[in-house]
Amino acid sequence: MQNPLRRIVVVGGGSAGWMTAAALGRFLRQSTTKVVLVESDEIGTIGVGEASLPLLALFNQLIGIDERDFVMKTKATFKLGIEFVDWTRLGHRYFHPFGQYGQNFDVCDFHHHWLKAKAAGAGGALDDYNLNTQLARQNRFNMRGRDPSSPMAGVAHAYHFDAGLYAAYLRGHAEKHGVARIEGRITTVRQDAASGFVTAVELADGQVVDGDFFIDCSGFRALLIEETLKTGHHDWTGLLPCDRAVAVPSARSGVLTPYTRSTARDAGWQWRIPLQHRTGNGYVFSSAHLSDDQAIATLLANLDGQPLAEPRIIRFRTGRRAQAWNRNVVAIGLSAGFLEPLESTAIHLVQKGVTKLLKCMPDMDFAPQLREEFNRQTAFDYEDVRDFLVMHYKLTEREDTEFWRYNRHNTVSPALQDRMDLFAATGRIFINEHELFKTASWLAVMTGQGLVPAAYDPMADALSTPDVLRALDTMRDMIARAAAQQPDHADYIARHCPAV
């Protein structure tokens, strides 16, 4: 870098701020660029992003975090997928697992052979061919196996963790790599009169923190990207109508499940996230269909254990910033956009923002092409996830409340409608390599919520039906045996990574 940045200032802590700072600290540790993070103990964080996707393990590994130490220090548990209750219709449930279904025979995706077997009145349930699902149903867990011939080689896992403890853990990791933390509440943002670039932030005690490049991790406030730069926002409330959540932790109770549960309620849905020391709970709802008091009452009436704190209301607006990078400010986390936590994508979108930032790191010349590419990729990431979440609402049979009637008959994006129509007609699923959710995820949700293809890929007929059925029987038996041999989830944690 011919003209390197002198100082990068991260504004705001929490998971987003410290994930950003930890990554920058690690990869800039040999450079002349200094990284500082400004946060105030007076300002709380949202702190309910307690579930993740498997890619978080890769991020932790990238910045040098030991998995066992992370699980112990954040009181984490393991996550094999998400169980959806009452989404399709009342009394119905399905599982969205990590990892693939079955094994491809030839040029066809596996599910076309399963669809062919179903057409012949055989094949069993799709869940029979996913090891994560079978492990979750039995509350079992083990790490990915090293033997490529074993079904355990295909196991993928994520985590449930305490978001506050994760931020503190990342802070320690970042400070080891030279990141400086400055305590203080920002009262003034200074800008260059000619360029509009942010030049410094002034704190309540009069301290001035100057920098060349600013990362806005200030949450919904969006202090730099919106309050200061007036960047603009794309509102997606019409597609994702929930605009509030009430959250409360409760005492641990019952089996320590290796999955998140999402239960559809009258005006939204309730999350249940099991940690080693407590359970995280929340009700994401539409204020147009339910009052705050009603949401609190519903949540408290549906806890597994005693509440450990007073419920708190979180107000939000779904959508994304018009530009995640404006002038010399990049927004990461809630300041860049928000999509309700239905598929645990909040932490992942932070992670994607950080990795894009590392790839698009500017020098003092601030090439506009870097900013444009960062914004293009960020827009794709948010819109990609948005459509996947909207599909859960669209593919419902429920008509029992105004909320569900609205969602069932709502208009979705043309891209999402085309994808659902293609699957319904042909069973085909085509995935862009940059999409977060791959074929198995789309298959799990579409079939789980009752979208049954009218046909399968004719290439599946290259194999005879008896051959297909024999292969399916073998897969199903191998997966069942592998699942039955794994330890109980709670026992695995107690043996290998109990909370500190």
Topology (elements, then pairings):
Layout: E1 7-11, H1 14-27, E2 34-39, H2 55-62, H3 67-73, E3 77-79, E4 81-85, E5 93-97, H4 110-119, H5 131-137, E6 158-160, H6 163-176, E7 180-183, E8 186-191, E9 198-203, E10 208-210, E11 213-216, H7 223-228, E12 233-235, E13 244-250, E14 260-265, E15 268-274, E16 279-285, H8 292-301, E17 312-315, E18 319-321, E19 325-326, E20 329-331, E21 337-338, H9 346-359, H10 368-394, H11 402-408, H12 414-426, H13 439-448, H14 465-484, H15 489-496
Parallel strand pairs: 1-2, 1-11, 2-7, 4-14, 11-20
Antiparallel strand pairs: 3-6, 4-5, 8-9, 9-10, 12-18, 13-16, 13-17, 14-15, 15-16, 18-21, 19-20
Helix pairs in contact: 1-6, 1-9, 4-14, 5-14, 9-10
Q: What's this, in brief?
A:
This protein has 500 residues and is of the alpha+beta class. Helices cover 35% and strands 19% of the residues. The model has no long low-confidence stretch (mean pLDDT 95).
Note down, in words, how this protein is organized.
The chain has helices at residues 14-27, 55-62, 67-73, 110-119, 131-137, 163-176, 223-228, 292-301, 346-359, 368-394, 402-408, 414-426, 439-448, 465-484, 489-496; strands at 7-11, 34-39, 77-79, 81-85, 93-97, 158-160, 180-183, 186-191, 198-203, 208-210, 213-216, 233-235, 244-250, 260-265, 268-274, 279-285, 312-315, 319-321, 325-326, 329-331, 337-338. The chain is 35% helix and 19% strand. The mean pLDDT is 95. A hairpin with a 2-residue loop joins strand 19 (325-326) and strand 20 (329-331). Helix 1 packs parallel to helix 6 and helix 4 crosses helix 14 (465-484). It has 500 residues and is an alpha+beta fold. It has a 7-stranded mixed beta sheet. It has a 6-stranded mixed beta sheet with strand order 7-2-1-11-20-19. The protein has a 3-stranded antiparallel beta sheet with strand order 8-9-10, with no helix packed on it.
